[in-house]
Amino acid sequence: MIYADDMGYGDLNVQNPTSKIPTPFLDQLAAEGMRFTDAHSSSGICSPSRFALLTGMYHWRRQHEIVGAFGKSFFKDSDITLPQLLKTKGYTTAAIGKWHLGWNWVSKNDSTGQINNPNQVLPEDIDWTKPIAGGPTDRGFDYYFGDGTINFPPYAWIENNRFLEAPTELMEFNQVGFETKEGNWEFRVGPKVKDWNPYEVLPTLTQKTLEWIGNQSQDQPFFLYFALPSPHAPIIPNEEFDGTSQAGGYGDFVVQTDWVAGQVLKALKENGLEENTIVIFSSDNGPEHYAWARGLEYNHFSMGDFRGLKRDVWEGGHHVPMIVKWPNKIKAGTVSTEVISQIDLMATLANAAEITLPEDAAPDSYNFLPVWKGESYQSPLREATIHNTYASIWGIRKRDWLFINDSTGGHRNIPEDFAELRGYSDFNTPGLLFNMNEDPEQKNNLYRDFPEKVEELNLQLEKYKSGEKTVYRKD
Predict the structure, then answer these.
(1) How many Å apart are CA 328 and CA 342, to the nearest integer?
(2) DSSP-assigned letter for residue 412
(3) Tally of CB atoms within 10 A around 354
(4) How far apart are CA 256 and CA 238, in angstroms?
(5) Phi/psi at 248 (nearest 5 deg)?
(6) pLDDT along the chain (475 residues), means of 10
(7) Neighbours of 45 (CB within 10 A)
């Protein structure tokens, strides 16, 4: 599973006829597998979407916000994760890259061991020699390697549950010692190791991933969750990718992201693993706010034709790329218009591995195996899909209809020049209703035209929010 960070639907070249960014490796992946044109992350921000993907549970059943620097774990110990499930079938499991789902950090300065102010942690506040609990190796992964989150402290490498080197210095806000290729560093203040170089993060993670794949065999099933730090800010493509797109530094970073995915595919092939491995590519949410200026300056629209960006309940906040390749199982070059959520990957992969889901696992996850394999099924497979980021705005998609329980789907205003370019106008109804088949750009609000549909969808939304499961499985 290759999970990009803040990569928009329109950043995948095969999905964007006016793209200014070449993505040949992902385009090839799409040509060899199934591309979903209506795929969604659970949230418009990263930690919640990652939790939902790994548990088959909507993030809002637990929390809306991201996990902050030195924040507590998103998980409960009772949660059943995808790697835990696969381990019951003998799978070796690994997570490499961005975690951003919390650890059980312990402070040396408080008798309770609690970190009272995560925004003011100094290098001397934590005993870096001790193992850290609550991370990937406590959530079903046999192996972890990464830096936690590229723009959050601590800025250091973690292998399994230990630091390879103790942070001894303090990263000052946006005083990194390097230049970005676009936008700001967006680094939070906190501990770092001496001479920490952000430009080494993606190449190091890539090399570790290729090494891990090289150590796998055809006789031992494995699951790899490769969570990229790109093309999330800081936008820092390595110099060999400078100028490889026509969309500035971000475009070059997407080119590098595509290249990294290509190296993973190449490693699978070279190690004789390609024919019996499912490869999934997706992104945790839509593109960051830099996408507005990118559209105006370069005529490249990272959100595709969709309204809104990361954080929004507008379509652009959560409508993401998704490609699935499974040689001899998924017909090459197929395109599915089914509404699919990343929470559906857990039930689908469990069924592919012939694992019976425990009753309390993956309460919101649908089995899309019939869709993948081209078998008969009743469409649409999902009864409905909830779109949400923060607690204030909710959307529900059912067939072609989308209801939003607010006068906007945005958590910030679209700049006037961009809104004028795209023909967006504000709405003044207490809720919004769109036909997504006829109006994927969300310009024509039908709220007053179909009051029965508004009532139906609002009622179903409230039932789900009250705790009702979205999936009912037979024993």
Answers:
(1) 23
(2) S
(3) 7
(4) 8
(5) 70, -165
(6) 98 97 98 98 98 98 95 95 98 98 87 73 93 96 97 97 96 78 92 96 98 97 98 97 98 98 98 98 98 98 98 98 98 98 98 95 97 95 97 98 98 97 97 98 98 98 90 59
(7) 25
Residue 308: how many other CB atoms lie within 10 Å: 26
- At 184, which amino acid appears? N
Give the single-character DSSP code of 182.
B
Phi-psi label, residue 446: left if phi above 0, alpha if psi -120 to 50, beta otherwise? alpha
Q: Which helix (H) or strand (E) holds 159?
A: strand 158-159
Q: How far apart are CA 149 and CA 153, in angstroms?
A: 7
- From the list 16, 33, 6, 41, the residue with the least C-alpha distance to 334 is 33
Locate 200 and state its tokens: 């080494």
H or E segment and range at residue 147: strand 143-148
Angstrom distance (rounded) from CA 198 to CA 153: 12
Residue found by looking up tokens 């993956």 in the block = 362
Strand-strand pairing, 319-320 and 322-325: unpaired
End-to-end CA distance of the chain: 29
Q: Which residue shows structure tokens 């090289």?
A: 214
In contact, 335 and 329? CB cutoff 8 Å? no
Q: Which pTM was predicted?
A: 0.97
Q: How far apart are CA 379 and CA 376, in angstroms?
A: 9
Tallying the residues shown for the chain, one arrives at 475
